[in-house]
Amino acid sequence: MTKTQIKKTIVVLATGLFFAIPAGAGEWVDMFDGKTLEGWKVNTENPDTFSVEGGTIKVFGPRTHLFYGADGNAKFKDFEFECEVKTTKGANAGIFFHTKYQDNGWPEVGYEAQVNATHSDWRKTASIYSFKDVKEAGHRDDVWFTYNIKVKGKTVTVSIDGKVVNEYTEPADHAEKTKRFGEGTIALQGHDPKSLIYFRKLRIRTIE
Q1: Which pTM does this prediction carry?
Q2: Which domains does the chain have, with CATH numbers?
């Protein structure tokens, strides 16, 4: 391993197990073992919203967020994240990136990639929430789809089932102090008590 690779290696200690972030670009790392939420930290608001069911992360319950990393603060800058998602009728969730752990409330740091096919919120899946929004989801409820988020510099590219559906570049005059590109962790959102959504096959890799 080169010195550069060593510097890029982040090892997170969680309940006696090590979760290694990729040492080099292009190396996918699984973020979910299909059995437990080891390597993640759910905040204290409504922790029972997140559970493991049938090899998936089940999200069902009042607002809560699940942050990647033993302390909820894994660090990613330029990366590619991918997972499979299944929404149900009227459900809403989100995938936050470049965020950081907080005990409660909507994450104040980083951006949200929306997950929503039929919820009443007009911002649908692949929206970079409130910054560049999508009005049509590009997937159906009750059908698994692949969600890919790629961040390079100040640009995020969102793909659904291999098709690019949204791209957002942060402008030079971006005024937001916390909702901006930088570095941070990935977080899954439990949006509301009526929303039922499943995630599986979560993985991430650094890019150059």
Answers
A1: 0.89
A2: 26-206 (2.60.120.560)
